[in-house]
Amino acid sequence: MSVLSSPYFHDDEAAFAKLESVIWPEGPICPHCGGIDKIYALKANPEKRIRIGLKKCGQCSKQFTVKVGTVFEHGRVPLHKFLQAVYLMCSSKKGCSAKQLERTLEVTYKTAWFMSHRIREAMRSGDLASFGGGGSAVEVDETFIGREPGKQKRPGFHHKMKVLTLADRETKKARSVVVDDLRPVTFAPILNENISKDARLMTDEAHLYKRLGKKFATHESVNHSRDEYARGDVTTNTVEGYFSVFKRGMKGVYQHCAKKHLHRYLAEFDFRYNEREVKGIDDRQRTDNALRGIVGKRLTYETTETQGVAIGRC
Fold first, then answer.
1. What is the rounded CA–CA span in Å between residue 255 and residue 7?
2. Strands 137-145 and 63-64
3. Does residue 180 lie within any of the structural domains?
4. Is residue 228 included in any domain, yes or no?
5. What is the DSSP letter of 8?
6. Which of 11, 42, 102, 199 is most open to solvent, judged by the fewest CB atoms within 10 Å of its CB?
7. How far apart are CA 89 and CA 146, in angstroms?
8. What is the mean pLDDT of the chain?
9. Helix residue ranges, H only, 92-196
10. Tens digits of per-residue pLDDT, 61-113?
């Protein structure tokens, strides 16, 4: 049976039950006081507005649903459509545009755009564990995409937005960040905070890494300008593979992205890379993992819109 034929993708009661099983595997927790006892479901009253999944806490006497305290809070879109959107974005290797969500879910473009950013916020990881623990290899590289706001197009990469990505071979995880320039003073705190000192740092021949590499156990590089892409196990092919999927998604699916939104798109591509099938995670599990990330996060339309303009077909 197809995953999309599951009841929770088509019925709100089933959708609430599904979300509760993911968020509250051991039973309901009051988002207001943190209580777990004396929580009971309120029976629907046909004479008043029926709120599916409504519960009341016997400790603080406040009402809530599983959406309270999550990025789904105050969402006017039926929950089953939200779950469809999460599944589509988690199961599409290169992403699912807001225009595609608009057509599939039969909502407006603005609604689809805001839904997709809420889901990216849920995908954002708070993991601060250092890469390269135990002396494993960490590949570091940068890529360029789009255009920096206010900069004229000219030869080279200076007018493009810049992305730095770290890839840990041992954990098979990636972590990406938007950077404003390629100076060592910009890269140093990022590498020092995210990479263990006993890691094997692997980069290309860029000069900025020569000084930064001295902070780690070893620093090895390959010279792409001389067509050297691997020397033994020294290579940046892992992080280059990440970039290949990221760029195909940004150019072929999303097409346009404001710089102020780029960090959320990176969170999306990082999440799918870190939860990919090679690690034994299928589409259904990946969707459940994304749903677990909705707790404790909040994103309003006004905040999202003022951080950048939704343009084109992103």
1. 33
2. unpaired
3. yes
4. yes
5. G
6. 42
7. 22
8. 91
9. 98-105, 109-123, 184-194
10. 999 999 999 999 988 899 999 999 999 999 999 999 999 999 999 999 999 99
Q: Residue 139's closest CA among 163, 165, 120, 162?
A: 165
Single-letter residue type at 66: V
Residue 13 CB-half CA count within 13 A: 3
Taken as a whole, the chain contains a residue count of 314
For the stretch 95-108, what's the b/e string if a residue is b when 16 or more beta carbons lie within 10 angstroms of its beta carbon?
bbbbbbbbeebebe
pLDDT band of residue 48 (cuts 50, 70, 90) is low
Residue 274 in domain: no
Closest by CA to 194, choosing from 269, 152, 139, 249, is: 139
Provide the 3-class DSSP secondary structure of residue 234.
strand
**Reduced to 3 states, what is the DSSP secondary structure of residue 98?**
helix
Q: At 248, which CATH number?
A: 3.30.420.10
Q: How far is CA 282 from the centre of its chain?
A: 17
The residue segments making up the domain with residue 201 are 137-257
Instruction: Report how far Cα 71 is from the mean position of its chain's Cα atoms.
Output: 13
Amino acid at 77: V
Distance CA 71, CA 303 (A): 13
CB 133 within 8 A of CB 196: yes
Q: How many domains does the chain have?
A: 1
Give the type of residue at 173: K
pLDDT band at 314 (very low <50, low <70, confident <90, very high): very low
Which residue from 125, 201, 139, 202 is spatially nearest to 168, judged by alpha carbons?
A: 139
Tens digits of residue pLDDT in 239-274 = 999 999 999 999 999 988 999 999 999 999 999 999
